[in-house]
Amino acid sequence: MKIGLTSYAYAWAIGVPGFPEPESPMSASALLRRAASLGLEVVQLCDNLPLLALDSPARRALAAEAAALRLELELGGRGLTPQNLDDHLVLARDLGARLLRFVIDGPGNYHPSLDEAAAIIRPRLTALEEAGLTLAIENHDRFRAVELAACVRSLAHPRVGICLDTANSLGAGEDFSTVFAALGPLAVNLHVKDVLVRRLPHQLGFSVNGCAAGRGVVALALPAALASLAAGTRCRSVLLESWPEPGPDLAETCARDDAWAAEGAAWIKPLLHQ
Predict the structure, then answer these.
(1) pLDDT score of 65
(2) Please, what is the average pLDDT of the chain?
(3) Could you give the percent of the chain with pLDDT greater than 90?
(4) Does the structure show a pLDDT above 70 at 274?
């Protein structure tokens, strides 16, 4: 498995909708250079850094830059509609990506059922196979892990698997150990986000906040999960993300993005290279 990051590791530097924008938002090129400087191997360019509008020369240039930096590119889309999936299949081909992660839900209250999602994917299985591309469906708030596992297994194809996120399913009431038990055998890609769970001062409840990988509750279960994934053959990449809260100003928040990426990379590398 290769170690890298997704564009959500630098969400504030790229720009978070509804919040003040950076004066100079981080570009895909800048993200690649930062990943290379951290000694990483993979960058997954997700929907917060959309690339569909790039023309052919720009796509070729981005692919060439990644190759020059010895980085493998992956893609990430959101909103599993037929057209959006088709557009991302073309983009993956143009960039030489071998993995395409998708969040099923999309803008405008687009919330298809898992049966509808499978019906969109099924006619494109041959295209995935011909392109040598793996489609990774990410666990998110709306579906339980066992439901996602059943959906992927219903497709019964080696080019379809799970992008297993370590924290997203908290929104569905499931911790990482529960999610890993259901989705680990289907994982082709791992998103590592860590969180701190703290009891509130009044003792009536908890807060859940992001932290650098290695500092929170996910870190307790992750070493065993990584060993399990490494023993298999399906999981291609382990990618850092983070959930930093906004600080007093955007510059400080972006600096925390960067510090957490460096800290997380330093923490996770030894776990994979034991």
Answers:
(1) 98
(2) 95
(3) 89
(4) no
DSSP 70: T
pLDDT at res. 232: 85
Q: Cβ neighbours of residue 268 under 8 Å, at least 6 residues apart?
A: 3, 192, 213, 214, 238, 240
For 239-263, give the DSSP string. Answer: EE---PPP-SSHHHHHHHHHHHHHH
Alpha helices in the chain (DSSP H): 11-14, 28-37, 56-68, 82-95, 114-121, 125-131, 145-155, 176-183, 218-231, 250-272
Cα distances (Å, whole numbers) of residue 125 to 91, 116, 122, 132, 148: 17, 15, 6, 11, 18
Counting every residue written for the chain, the total comes to: 274
Residue ranges of domains in the chain, CATH in brackets: 2-272 (3.20.20.150)
Percent of the chain with pLDDT over 70: 100
Q: What's the sign of the alpha-carbon dihedral 251, 256, 257, 258?
A: positive
Do 67 and 95 meet the contact criterion of CB atoms below 8 Å apart? no
* pLDDT for 233: 81
Count of helices and strands (H, E) across the chain: 10, 10
> How far is 25 from 130, CA to CA, in rounded Å?
36
Structure tokens, 25: 């938002």
Residue 214 has pLDDT above 70, yes or no: yes
Cα separation of 246 and 94, whole Å? 35
Of 3, 1, 2, 79, nearest to 240 by C-alpha is 3
Run of H or E including 136: strand 134-138
**pLDDT band at 272; cut points 50, 70, 90:** confident
- Write the Ramachandran bin of 187: left for phi over 0, alpha for psi from -120 to 50, otherwise beta: beta
Q: Is the pLDDT of residue 226 over 70?
A: yes
